[in-house]
Amino acid sequence: MSMKALKKDQVTPERLMQFGFAYAPPLIIGAAVSNKVFDSLETEPKTVEQISKETGASKRGSRAIMNALVGLELLKKDRQGKYSLTPESEAFLLSGKPGTLAGFFAMACTHLLPDWLHLAESVKTGAPPVALNQEASGPEFFSVLVENIIPMSYPAATALGQALNLAKKREPVRVLDIAAGSGIWGIALAQQSPLVRVTALDWPAMIPITKRITQKFDVADRFSYIEGDVLEADFGSDYDIATLGHILHTEGEERSRKLLSKTFGALKPGGVIAIGEWLVNDRRTEPLNGLIFAVNMLVHSERGDTFSFSEIKSWLEEAGFKKARKLEAPGPSPLILATKP
Length: 341
Fold this sequence. Notes:
Layout: H1 3-9, H2 14-20, H3 24-34, H4 37-40, H5 48-55, H6 59-71, E1 75-77, E2 83-85, H7 87-92, H8 102-116, H9 119-125, H10 138-148, H11 150-163, E3 173-178, H12 184-190, E4 196-202, H13 207-216, E5 223-227, E6 239-245, H14 248-266, E7 267-276, H15 288-300, H16 309-319, E8 322-327, E9 335-339
Parallel strand pairs: 3-4, 3-6, 4-5, 6-7
Antiparallel strand pairs: 1-2, 7-9, 8-9
Helix pairs in contact: 3-6, 3-8, 5-6, 8-10, 11-12, 14-16
């Protein structure tokens, strides 16, 4: 074999070594958020000493984390040793900005990673350390999560409203936001037309959070509420649109199929169901974000998983829906739409 062939086929540990520290970036960002590093740089560039004095964080800690953020291209550093925000960190990591992801990274070490540390045991048993899809334990977790993931759902929900031409409607539009959480799916639709009325359904402990966020977005007067589990509560009927924003992955296949059937009954003829999910392909070989999210479901839910478009399409058809299709929208995956004939 030639030396050229040897070099071509040579395997190195470099990629695995990079994986060995893959946990670091979200923790670094979270620590910077918790210590107000990004917020302190909102008005002007500053040195490590200035940041340390302003935030109360140590100089050693501030220097280490800020230099790492430079390496992650989330801060810039000039020749005078002053640090400043990048367009990306200015847009998404300032705590006071709409659409911020600062809270998500701050909660990563407190609400996400603890269960991931039990991954080996979950792989062995097939069960999470705590099932967060249960009403007894879920609200404490989701009450923190839902507002911090608004930036993931809001652009997709906005695109949904545009695709459904809500701004051009001349008759009232009734929306059912199932497992509403923050209410952001209904909120984004309500923002597009004063004719939209939203019914938000969630556990009783979650409804006050939904109400607070609808007030924040100034659409609270167009929301009503149903309290209860998604398979037990009475949805009502004659809705034009039903949204399931990132819900099926926590429910698992059996409950998801029942939920889609129940949603079918709540829609009027011609009504549309819209599903946001982390989709994987039929062979479960890509995309990586969906495959990793399935592991996230392993450590956080009893039966949660990620699914392919084909699987969800078959469940929709089983429930009676027609014209299952994808809608390209900002977010981890395309939305799935289907119509009640």
